[in-house]
């Protein structure tokens, strides 16, 4: 065990150097399997333990009596014994069967390690967002500074004014732009000055363009016109249910009408189609005058912890407008969509993409593209946190 731990320490040192991770960052973040951001790395110590336990179990539970009764011991040193670990795991599973599954919130097995996550590094445990896996091919593709940034971004260990102040590296913990407390959350989504300067709007529009592009591709896709009118009747033999093939595929909203038009509120002011009079302007409006159907999409790029709240706020905001459309005899849908500003699409994004009929693969790609736009723009906003003037587009973006 001591040898293995030595190997792990050495591996850790090099991984940290490669990925540019500061010493303050807990190693748990590199290996965690249930984390918000999952890297394809595994702990050598853990792999070793798992392998040893597997040997213990396969010998002990062998169908061959000669093997299971032979009393073989799996050697793993004095510090940690595989057979003891297996016994403990088995008895704790038995105990769990007796007391029932007592998990706190969303924490699962092995949640004891959260205790090692001091302060803000564990804030993501409160997120209610689909997790993000970084596979090897992506890890290779990302610049080292980027992955370091991503990790510190998600686990909030970037040198924000507040952190610098706590680490005694800065006199004040204040935002350079507005003078309020400069946390990462403040800089990326809570600063009034950034808001009025249009920094957040600029990021929002970047993500919006990506979303609009996705919808546009779906809109122009050739799909069979209104299928409901001439759907063939399928006869089912007496005593049998509908076979697998005759079951209706989930239809998308877009399929329910032909000739969809789309307007996106970016650049010039969007004019709401002549269904009702309104001063509200959702980010994207899709409608079919012929079939009297309208879809309102509103995008928000909030701080990850604020996705749920943003969703409810936006849903409430457009409820009346949708009702007005319905009162005119139109069929109306409202989709508030959130993409967290650190690049995590909320469930609302996935369900919207499903609703317009995208398959799993294209959904994944579209969500990743939007997440990347948000993350890249946030990275830019972060890098300009000390600069009082803001000129997007000038350098490189
Ligand atoms: Zn500020």
Task: Give a verbal description of the structure.
It contains 14 helices and 6 strands. It is α/β, with parallel strands linked by helices. The protein has helices at residues 2-19, 28-31, 44-60, 65-68, 82-99, 136-141, 144-154, 161-166, 184-190, 192-197, 199-220, 307-327, 347-355, 360-383, and strands at 37-38, 132-133, 261-264, 284-288, 293-300, 331-338. The chain has a 4-stranded mixed β-sheet with strand order 3-4-5-6. It has a two-stranded parallel sheet with strand order 1-2. Bound molecules: zinc ion. The site of zinc ion has 7 residues, from loops. Residues 175, 177-178, 180, 186, 191, 193 line the site of zinc ion (ZN).
What is the compact description of this entry?
The protein is built from 14 helices and six strands.
Please write out the topology.
Layout lengths: L1 H18 L8 H4 L5 E2 L5 H17 L4 H4 L13 H18 L32 E2 L2 H6 L2 H11 L6 H6 L17 H7 L1 H6 L1 H22 L40 E4 L19 E5 L4 E8 L6 H21 L3 E8 L8 H9 L4 H24 L14
Parallel strand pairs: 1-2, 5-6
Antiparallel strand pairs: 3-4, 4-5
Bound molecules: zinc ion.
The site of zinc ion has 7 residues, from loops.
Query: β content, as a range?
Result: 5-15%
- Rounded mean pLDDT is 83
Poorly predicted runs of 5 or more residues = 101-118
The structural domain count equals: 2
Indicate the CATH class of the largest domain. Alpha Beta
Principal-axes geometry comes out as flat
Kindly report the spatial arrangement of strands forming the biggest sheet.
3-4-5-6
Give a quick account of the main beta sheet: strands, pairing sense, barrel closure: 4 strands, mixed
Q: Enumerate how many helices there are, as a single number.
A: 14
Order of helices and strands: HHEHHHEHHHHHHEEEHEHH
β-strand number? 6
Helical content band = 40-55%
The fold-level CATH name of the largest domain is Restriction Endonuclease
Instruction: State the secondary-structure class.
Output: alpha/beta
Q: Which kinds of small molecule does this entry bind, naming each only once?
A: zinc ion
């Amino acid at each position: 065990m001591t040898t293995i731990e030595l190997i792990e320490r050495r591996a850790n040192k090099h991984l940290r150097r490669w990925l540019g991770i500061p010493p303050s960052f807990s190693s748990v973040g590199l290996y965690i399997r249930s984390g918000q951001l999952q890297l394809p790395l595994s702990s050598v110590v853990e792999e070793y333990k798992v392998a040893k336990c597997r040997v213990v179990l396969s010998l002990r539970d062998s169908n061959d009596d000669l093997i299971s009764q032979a009393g073989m011991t799996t050697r793993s040193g004095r510090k940690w014994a595989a057979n003891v670990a297996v016994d403990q795991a088995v008895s704790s599973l038995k105990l769990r069967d007796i007391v029932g599954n007592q998990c706190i919130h969303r924490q699962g097995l092995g949640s004891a390690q959260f205790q090692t996550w001091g302060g803000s590094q564990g804030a993501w445990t409160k997120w209610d967002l689909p997790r993000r896996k970084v596979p090897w091919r992506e890890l290779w593709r990302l610049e080292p500074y980027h992955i370091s940034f991503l990790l510190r971004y998600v686990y909030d260990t970037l040198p924000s004014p507040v952190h610098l102040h706590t680490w005694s590296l800065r006199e004040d913990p204040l935002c350079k732009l507005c003078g309020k407390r400069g946390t990462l959350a403040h800089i990326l989504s809570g600063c009034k000055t950034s808001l009025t300067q249009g920094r957040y709007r600029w990021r929002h529009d970047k993500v919006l363009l990506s979303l609009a592009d996705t919808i546009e591709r779906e809109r122009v896709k050739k799909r069979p016109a209104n299928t409901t009118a001439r759907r063939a009747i399928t006869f089912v033999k007496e005593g049998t249910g509908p076979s697998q093939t005759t079951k209706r595929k989930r239809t998308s909203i877009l399929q329910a009408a032909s000739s969809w038009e789309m307007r996106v509120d970016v650049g010039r002011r969007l004019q709401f189609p002549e269904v009702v009079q309104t001063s509200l302007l959702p980010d994207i409006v899709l409608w079919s005058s012929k079939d009297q159907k309208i879809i309102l999409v509103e995008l928000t790029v909030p701080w990850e912890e604020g996705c749920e709240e943003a969703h409810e706020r936006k849903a409430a905001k457009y409820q009346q407008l949708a009702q007005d459309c319905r009162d005119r005899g139109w069929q109306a849908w409202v989709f508030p969509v959130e993409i967290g500003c650190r690049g995590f699409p909320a469930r609302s994004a996935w369900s919207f993409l499903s609703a317009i009929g995208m398959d799993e693969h294209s959904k994944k790609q579209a969500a990743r593209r939007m997440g990347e736009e948000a993350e890249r723009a946030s990275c830019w906003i972060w890098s300009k946190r000390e600069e009082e003037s803001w000129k997007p587009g000038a350098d490189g973006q």
